[in-house]
Predict the structure.
Amino acid sequence: MSRIKGMTREEAIKCLKTIQRRTPEWDDREDGLSYWDAIDMALSALRPVSREQVEKSWRGEWIGMTDDDGCTWQECSRCEHDLDSMEEAQNFCPACGAPMTDEAVDIRLKELEALKDDQT
């Protein structure tokens, strides 16, 4: 469990939610801004990255392509990098790094969590 100045991520989330509950008037400022929106943004940054977020943001897939001469290859759906027919499809696109399989998404999630834990 990571700590910043003695506070864990879970404790920070609890603290921010308490602030929201105890300060309902902060939601209606004259300038149209809301402290609650800022707190919501901070809360979303503190929550772990979900599988759905990774898949929506980065997931790619190998698309089978064939030209008029019958030559085949696979192309990354994210960056259009192509693998010729002799190359085996990989878990990650070698050009853009997009995860291409469920296993690759799991690997990317673990990497993101490790990065987040190192920063907190």
Notes: The longest strand covers residues 62-66.
